[in-house]
Amino acid sequence: MERVRRVLVHFCQDGAAQPAHFVQSITGHFSEGGEDEVEVGCSLEGNRFILQRADAGRGVALKRHAFCPIKHLSVTENAALPLDVRQRGVDVGVATILQTANQKVLLTRRAKELRIFPDIWVPPGGHLELDETLLDAGLRELQEETGLKLEPEEGSPNILGLWESVFPALLSRGLPQRHHIVVYLLLRSPLTHLELQASLSPSPAEVSACLWADRQLVSAVVSDPGGENHDLQRSVSVSQVSADGALSDASLPLEVLLSRTPVSGPDVERVSTGTMFALKLWLRSLDDL
């Protein structure tokens, strides 16, 4: 059998690390009553991302969406998965919540040509590679996608939370093709968003637009639909990325960022559900400060 060349999720059981199966709900493994959010301990050991039970208040939040396809996968749908998909295991991704000195965070819109979650707003991020630390992966993906280079000692990193991500996001759009645990890593830059903007040079193959979201905008994005009126302008300033990587000022309707995953039909431009989870945790971290 070919040796796995990816970092995969493992469970710590009876003192040993066992790989998680592709069709196994990671959140469900730790949930005693079917909850969609639990607390876990996590560590990266020998290219294995190990999860284990944690006492309340001692771990990090792990969450899945209520409509998570793995959670609702039937026996028939499980059997219909191609063998190469079922044998993939659960991959590990790292997404960087970059907080500026003036308390804004960077969001990027995934290029429409990408096969997975095109046109969705997320923080910079990607797969954790072999022999990388979580911080190494976060800094590398940040630089590859946006051109921003932070030194390891600048970031003051900490894990905000873990998100169980499955693509497609709904079973109505097809059987699962990818299953990840995404580590949302908070990095605090000593620079303001204007100082960082001067060095912004996104990769057009991965990013089609960028925006700096302040606390008020983030609060609106993560609020319940139809909830509080945040008195925001009806459009948001973004940096559009051309095919050659040039940036230009553009305007994005606020309603795009307030959109939610459609319960049926094709997906729409929106902030990813996992990103909203991480942004809620980011707001909480500001309150804790």
Automatic annotation (TrEMBL):
Q: Which InterPro entries match?
A: NAD-cap_RNA_hydrolase_NudC (IPR050241), NUDIX_hydrolase-like_dom_sf (IPR015797), NUDIX_hydrolase_dom (IPR000086), Nudt17_dom (IPR033716)
Q: What cofactor does this protein call for?
A: Mg(2+); Mn(2+)
In terms of Pfam families, this protein maps to: NUDIX
**GO BP term, example:** NADP+ catabolic process
Q: What class of enzyme is it?
A: hydrolase
EC numbers for this chain: 3.6.1.62
Q: In this protein, which residues make up the domain named Nudix hydrolase?
A: 87-237
Q: Which reaction does it catalyse?
A: a 5'-end (N(7)-methyl 5'-triphosphoguanosine)-ribonucleoside in mRNA + H2O = N(7)-methyl-GDP + a 5'-end phospho-ribonucleoside in mRNA + 2 H(+)
Q: List the protein's name.
A: m7GpppN-mRNA hydrolase NUDT17
What species is given as this protein's source?
Answer: Champsocephalus gunnari (Mackerel icefish)
